[in-house]
Structures are given as C-alpha cells and as structure tokens.
Design goal:
The protein is mainly α. The protein contains five helices and no strands. Helix content is about 55%, strand content about 0%.
Length: about 80
C-alpha cells in the first residue's frame, strides 16, 4: 500500500491530522488512540516527540504578526514540559 494512502486512512480513522514523525516515534500511541485507549496528543506533545536537538521552529513575521517574544518563550516552556 502506498504510504500516502495509508497516511490518509490513519488520519480518517483518528479524525485528526497525523504528522509523519508520529508513525516512527509514536506508533504505539497511534494504535492506542485508534483503539480508544488513549486521547489524541496535544500539538505540544506531538512536537515534543522530536528530539530536542533536532527541533526547529520557524515563525514568519509576515504569516504570524501577532507572534511575540513572550509567546515564543511560553511555547518553549510548553515544549520542555511536554517532553519530560
């Protein structure tokens, strides 16, 4: 089965977008969610699956004019908390 077909089927079954890295780093979590044993992770938890040394967040001021240094610091704290 082509990966794009599989990916779309999983998203349909879960009723949410599934990031590609979730398949490799949270396979058991996806299965538990699909079986109703676990709730969907938050965006911060999904991002925290990526090892800290490999995370990169690009924020475009043109696309996100409301993004501030304070929001950036708050988001970073959520990342750290979710990754523990």
């Amino acid at each position: 089965m082509p990966f794009d077909v599989f990916h779309e089927a999983v998203e349909h079954a879960l009723g949410r977008p599934v990031f590609t890295h979730e398949f490799g780093l949270n396979y058991k979590g996806l299965l538990a969610e699909m079986n109703g044993e676990k709730v969907a992770p938050t965006f911060e938890e999904i991002c925290a699956l990526i090892p800290a040394e490999k995370r990169l967040l690009v924020i475009s001021p043109e696309k996100c004019p409301a993004w501030t240094a304070e929001k950036s610091a708050e988001f970073s704290k959520k990342f750290e908390k979710a990754g523990q």
